[in-house]
Automatic annotation (TrEMBL):
<feature type="transmembrane region" description="Helical">
    <location>
        <begin position="99"/>
        <end position="120"/>
    </location>
</feature>
<feature type="transmembrane region" description="Helical">
    <location>
        <begin position="66"/>
        <end position="93"/>
    </location>
</feature>
<keyword id="KW-1003">Cell membrane</keyword>
<keyword id="KW-0813">Transport</keyword>
<feature type="transmembrane region" description="Helical">
    <location>
        <begin position="132"/>
        <end position="157"/>
    </location>
</feature>
<dbReference type="Pfam" id="PF01891">
    <property type="entry name" value="CbiM"/>
</dbReference>
<protein>
    <recommendedName>
        <fullName>Energy-coupling factor transport system substrate-specific component</fullName>
    </recommendedName>
</protein>
<feature type="transmembrane region" description="Helical">
    <location>
        <begin position="38"/>
        <end position="54"/>
    </location>
</feature>
<keyword id="KW-0812">Transmembrane</keyword>
<dbReference type="InterPro" id="IPR002751">
    <property type="entry name" value="CbiM/NikMN"/>
</dbReference>
<keyword id="KW-0472">Membrane</keyword>
<feature type="transmembrane region" description="Helical">
    <location>
        <begin position="169"/>
        <end position="195"/>
    </location>
</feature>
<keyword id="KW-1133">Transmembrane helix</keyword>
């Protein structure tokens, strides 16, 4: 497989540009003088990194892994989610747990699912009744499934463009990975909103627990 020289450089420039834009929108006030919030963000980033352990390296060069992007979006918002997942791609890079390099990996496993996850979350808030069931099941469970599907679809399209022999595996694995990612995201969000709702930036007690 020959990867065009411009692909890693172009994707890296695009990724850095998106992170720069996200940096201007980071709600730093949520972390300032709040040690608990700082610990939660750090632990969550480490947990996202550990998901990279579950890869399939030996399958025709295919890189498949759970991403947890929807959890990051719901807990921290899109800007912090992008930065947390950028750290994952950067730290995983020297160990070979990235897809076609840190730039393409960041775009496929962070930018695409975070953008879709945030759009899905906003749509759910506008269209669905404000209750806990809708938040956990639709935003967390369904949102997680959609996020991993978008990630794998992006990888598939690039793999087809590069004429990678294992390209079809990205689509074949997607249905099963959607269930796994959905249960991961839905389960995590259910635990968070029940036991530590203050950790979740998109969860509002007044909206979901005491609707008008």
């Amino acid at each position: 497989m020959h990867v065009p020289v411009l692909l890693p450089w172009t994707s890296a420039v695009l990724g850095v540009s998106l992170l720069a834009v996200a940096a201007t929108r980071l709600p730093w006030h949520k972390l300032r003088d709040d040690e608990e919030a700082q610990r939660v963000l750090g632990i969550a980033t480490m947990a996202l990194l550990l998901l990279r352990i579950f890869n399939t390296h030996g399958l025709a060069g295919v890189q498949l892994n759970f991403i947890g992007a929807m959890v990051a979006v719901l807990m921290f918002g899109p800007a912090f989610a992008l930065w947390a997942l950028a750290v994952v791609s950067l730290v995983a890079w020297p160990f070979g747990y990235v897809w076609l390099g840190p730039g393409p990996d960041f775009l496929a496993t962070a930018v695409v699912p975070v953008a879709l996850g945030w759009a899905w979350s906003r749509w759910c808030e506008r269209r669905l009744p404000p209750n806990l069931f809708a938040y956990v099941l639709v935003q967390g469970f369904v949102g997680g499934a959609l996020a991993i599907a978008a990630c794998n679809l992006a990888k598939y399209l690039v793999a087809v463009w590069l004429d990678m022999p294992g390209a079809p595996f990205y689509l074949l694995a997607t249905p099963l990975m959607m269930f796994g990612e959905a249960f991961l995201c839905g389960g995590v969000m259910a635990l968070v909103v029940v036991y530590r709702p203050q950790w979740c930036s998109t969860f509002d007690d007044a909206r979901y627990l005491r609707p008008r």
